[in-house]
TrEMBL record:
Residues 6-134, 155-255, 265-369 form the Alpha-D-phosphohexomutase alpha/beta/alpha domain. Gene3D superfamilies: Alpha-D-Glucose-1,6-Bisphosphate, subunit A, domain 3, Alpha-D-phosphohexomutase, C-terminal domain. GO terms for biological process: carbohydrate metabolic process. GO terms for molecular function: intramolecular phosphotransferase activity; metal ion binding. This is Phosphomannomutase.
Length: 452
């Protein structure tokens, strides 16, 4: 029997197909999902991985067996599935493993209105039912099996995004987009259609084997092709999407990466122009520049733990209009508090096209500090290594500590965060300082302790 404790993660289902899970188990998950959400109707979509259509169809059959009417939207990005869940007011399931290798697949699930489902909000119950029914079989449920209908929501998704950002008066822009053979190749042409954009497509062919490079723009090596094409073509901006196209990274006209913190600050300023005095969420690894810009524009910054469940919960509780993470997840109240890299990309295009300067100058106002990026270290004992780092900085004048998420140590000219991975024996270090020399000094001091 499948090990569902390994398969069901904190926020989603994810594993190797068919070794860890397959279509019969997907059908059981569908039945469990419909039961736990008490849904009379759901929406299901999938990415371009070879296993996705079969798994998605099996899940739909399982949900229908419990009486739920299923709207199948077929090929879509994860944020397109969130749109469908919000627009149709239905619980949803997206079949994707994001940037994982081709042999992986998974399910991201949400309640109606794109409200997230995690371990504490239904996923543990879904797993428990799936475990039980894997042994006993799914019991006869509804008096009447639900219906299965197909519906294409791509045009409606694109129209909704375009209604949220005014792109009517932007100057012509040359835009290189690297879809990484992922779902950006499906969504970008429709979203950008009719805009004054000279689109230079890269790897738009949907191919879940990822023949060109891994669809994970967080890794610098996966930006190399985009950077080269931007320089070759004299483009104004380059955009890179991950496999399920819910995250978006940008590079400027020189091919230099734009910090997701700078994007967060820029979009925050734009949202605050529409919603004066509003709350903006940022996780604790985003740059100091983010809360600074929020305050400068009259907003209220709120700092949270890393992870979409914490961001979405805080957004719902605080009524925040926007939230950003260092990993290039961007969340919008106007998008059911869900994350959409495409909407962040439209904000970037509107800001860039609404003035005459290059992107490097535009984002420079929001990129005020030097940063290390995330540095991973394999350790035998995460807690002991973290305690040793804390001890090394204890008693140092002007240094404060907090443990909202891992250990954050802050001084007047620098800060760092040291967090344990939930799934691997790793400690993740992020350092920011007023200059590169300060980053190097703190980085080397912490790593000397962690890697001793």
């Amino acid at each position: 029997m499948a090990d569902l404790l390994q398969l069901v993660k904190a926020y989603d289902v994810r594993g190797v197909v068919p070794d860890q899970w397959d279509e019969p188990l997907a059908e059981i998950f569908g039945a469990a999902f419909a039961t736990v959400t008490d849904a009379t109707a759901i929406v299901v979509g999938h990415d371009m991985r070879p296993s996705s259509p079969g798994l998605s169809a099996a899940f739909a059959r399982g949900a229908a067996s419990r009486g739920a009417d299923v709207t199948e939207i077929g090929l879509c990005s994860t944020d397109e599935l969130y749109f469908a869940s919000g627009h149709l007011e239905l619980p949803g399931a997206m079949f994707t493993a994001s940037h994982n290798p081709a042999r992986y697949n998974g399910i991201k699930m949400c309640r109606a209105g794109a409200a997230p489902i995690g371990q504490d909000t239904g996923l543990a119950d879904i797993r428990a039912l799936a475990e039980k029914w894997s042994e006993t079989g799914v019991p006869a449920g509804a008096a009447e099996t639900g219906t299965l209908v197909r519906r294409d929501v791509l045009d409606a998704y694109a129209a909704h995004l375009r209604s949220l950002v005014d792109l009517s008066d932007i100057r012509p822009l040359k835009v290189v987009v690297d879809a990484g053979n992922g779902m950006g190749g499906h969504t970008v042409p429709t979203v950008l259609a009719g805009l004054p954009v000279d689109l230079v497509p890269m790897y738009f062919e949907l191919d879940g084997t990822f023949p060109n490079h891994e669809a994970n723009p967080l890794d610098p090596k996966n930006l190399v092709d985009l950077q080269a094409r931007v320089r070759e073509t004299g483009a104004d901006i380059g955009l890179a999407f991950d496999g399920d196209a819910d995250r978006c990274f940008a590079v400027d006209e020189h091919g230099e990466p734009v910090s997701p913190s700078a994007v967060t600050a820029l979009v925050a300023a734009r949202e605050l122009a529409k919603h004066p005095g509003a709350t903006i969420i940022h996780n604790l690894i985003t740059s100091w520049s983010v809360p600074e810009v929020v305050r400068e524009h009259g907003g209220v910054p709120v700092r949270t733990r890393v992870g979409h469940s914490f961001i979405k919960q805080e957004m719902a509780e605080s009524g925040a209009v926007f939230g950003g993470e260092h990993s290039a997840h961007y969340y919008f109240r106007d998008f059911w508090n869900a994350d959409t890299g495409m909407l962040a990309a439209l904000h970037l295009l509107a800001a860039l096209g609404g003035q005459d300067g290059p992107l490097s100058a535009l984002v420079g106002a929001y990129d005020r500090y030097a940063a290390s990026g995330e540095i991973n270290s394999t350790v035998a004992d995460q807690a002991a290594s973290t305690a040793a780092v804390r001890a090394a900085f204890t008693g140092q004048e002007g240094v404060t500590f907090d443990e909202l998420d891992g250990l954050t140590v802050t001084a007047a000219d620098w800060w760092f965060n040291l967090r344990a991975s939930n799934t691997e024996p790793l400690l993740r270090l992020n350092v920011e300082a007023r200059d590169a020399a300060g980053v190097a000094r703190i980085r080397d001091r912490v790593l000397a302790i962690v890697r001793a």
